[in-house]
Amino acid sequence: MIRKTAQVLILVLIAAACGPGKPPENLDAHIRQVETSLIPPVRIEGDSIWTIEERMKHYGVPGVSIAVIQDNKISWSKAYGIMDKESKEPVTTQTLFQAGSISKPVSAFGALKFAAMGKISADENINTYLKSWQLPENEFTKGSKVTLKHLLSHTGGVTVHGFLGYSPDLPVPTLVQILNGETPANSPPIRIDKLPGADFRYSGGGYCIMQQMLIDIDGKPFPQIMQEQVLGPLGMTSSTYDQPLSKEKLPLAATGYLPDGAMTKGKRHTYPEMAAAGLWTTAEDLARFAIEIQLASKGESNKVLSREQVNEMLTPYISKEVGLGIFVDVLKSDVYFGHGGWDEGFSSAMTAHRDKGYGVVVLTNSNHPPFIDELIRAVALTYEWSDFMPVYKPMTMDPETIQRVAGRYKYDSDGVSEVVAKGDKLFYQYTGMKPMEMFKVSDSTFARSERTAFIQFKANPVDGQLHLVFRSDLADSVKYEH
To answer: Is the alpha carbon torsion for 146, 148, 153, 158 positive or negative?
Structure first.
């Protein structure tokens, strides 16, 4: 039987147990430490640390732009690589990237500004404000109407997860055609097929509804609305929701590259689904947006929204991880907010601490989110972000443990995985995939550098047969003693 006695899971803060230690004293040293401290999803004491150049080559990332936030200010920004493989033109901090779904929290700012001005009630039926198009009523909307809060928090039961965009050789549909799923739209109709307010389901379609609603209320093009209400007031001077880009800004735009390294058809796609995926921006501009959220949350700024409105935005709505337009991650007593983005050939991420004044924005012209995550963790390591990522110290495994847990396990209705013993080490392997080393971090818990889910082995009380169980919440259940 597996022993039930719990040993203390050895957790140490990321900066205390791995890498160079406390943040260096000068900015150049900060930057160099970030550039040489990329790490895997789960940090095991003694693991390798990579450089940004090594990981860009490993994944095939052509270009990167990063902006680091410290003390509610942009501490530094820097660009790496090239914006186009043919021209070899280097990325600069002024290079424009498609932000993908990070367009959503920025556009949510605009929608909530309309609510703050009294142009809309965030709790009212959205059909009250729609003129050019109406959300079709059905059995799901009879008892519960869809509101702006539902749209922003992905809880309205709205269909259509995301969008492919349109290469330059394709006709671009109107927003109403997209909402109806009519030719030449390449996405299905945006409808309600679940009870509004019941639960979370990610929907870019909901942001298209919101986009049409703002246009109908203000009578202006969406890019103009966002420029007047959000981008201009926040000093996001390089950013625009124009789709496609103007001739003036086009020379600044990076070329997108797909996961296999192929160029996005036509270099970049047009996204008429602007509120959901249409923002062109820089890392510095998105950092300004994150800083405004931080400052407004503390009552130190109100360039667009008040303290109360921003904190409502950061408060989980129905789903514990999603506020109004933004994702919220509570790690013990620390609150982080952010969003990721993916357009064809572009990936991005923004994450920041609500209260402690730090954060980071990473933009790339390729579809490799794991690289972005590694770079964010390098920033967290360098600046000692509170409770962002613990480090696990591996425990010695006795031969009895190794022999007991090695074997084949069923992990879903069809798949089989295997725990393989090699000397004094254990490896976890999905069928047909590369083995991942397992590290024992408590009496019955194992971690892998490549995956955030922990592995536990549970004995069936009837026959004693071991079952493999994945857990994602172990770090939260273990108290770290500072």
So the answer is: positive
Instruction: Indicate the range of 100-114, 227-241, 358-372, 422-436 predicted with least confidence.
Output: 422-436
Q: For 447, which DSSP code? A: E
Residue labelled with tokens 């039930």: 4
Report the alpha-carbon angle 196-200-203, nearest 5: 85
Read off the pLDDT of residues 133-161 as tens digits, 9 standing for 90 and up: 999 999 999 989 999 999 999 999 999 99
- 116 burial class (0-12, 13-18, 19+ CB within 10 angstroms)? middle
| Residues in the chain, total | 482
Q: How confident is the model at residue 41 (pLDDT cuts 50, 70, 90)?
A: confident
Q: Are 451 and 474 in contact (CB under 8 A)?
A: no
Which residues neighbour 79 within 8 Å (Cβ) at sequence distance 6 or greater?
A: 63, 64, 65, 66, 90, 91, 92, 93, 95
Cis status of the peptide bond prior to 136, with omega within 30 of 0: no
- CA distances for 290 relative to 266, 319, 334, 349, 361, angstroms: 31, 22, 16, 11, 9
In this predicted structure, what is the pLDDT of residue 367? Answer: 97
The CA distance from 372 to 339, in Å, is 12
What is the structure's pLDDT at 389? 75
pLDDT at residue 13 is higher than 60: no
Let me know: does 193 contact 147? Beta carbons within 8 Å: no
Write down the pTM of the prediction. 0.86
Spatial separation of the C-alpha atoms in residues 193 and 319, rounded to whole Å: 18
Name the residue among 309, 338, 384 with its Cα closest to residue 102.
Answer: 338
Closest CA to 104 of 329, 340, 431, 435: 340
CB within 8 Å of 252: residues ≥ 6 apart: 94, 95, 96, 238
State whether residue 302 is helix, strand or coil. Answer: coil
CA dist 394 and 10 (Å) reads: 8
Burial of 170 (0-12, 13-18, 19+ CB in 10 A): middle
Torsion angle defined by CA atoms of residues 72, 76, 77 and 78, in that order, rounded to the nearest 10 degrees: -160
Proportion of the chain above pLDDT 70, given as a percent: 92
Task: Return the number of other C-beta atoms located less than 10 Å from residue 184's C-beta.
Answer: 12
Q: Which letter does DSSP use for residue 251 in this model?
A: G
Displacement of CA 468 from its chain's centroid (Å): 29
Q: What is the DSSP letter of 38?
A: B
Q: CA–CA separation, 81 vs 84, rounded Å?
A: 9
Long-range contacts of 178-181 (CB under 8 A, 24+ apart): 178/208, 178/272, 178/273, 179/133, 179/208, 179/209, 179/212, 180/133
- The alpha carbon torsion through 69, 72, 74, 80 (nearest 10 deg) reads 10
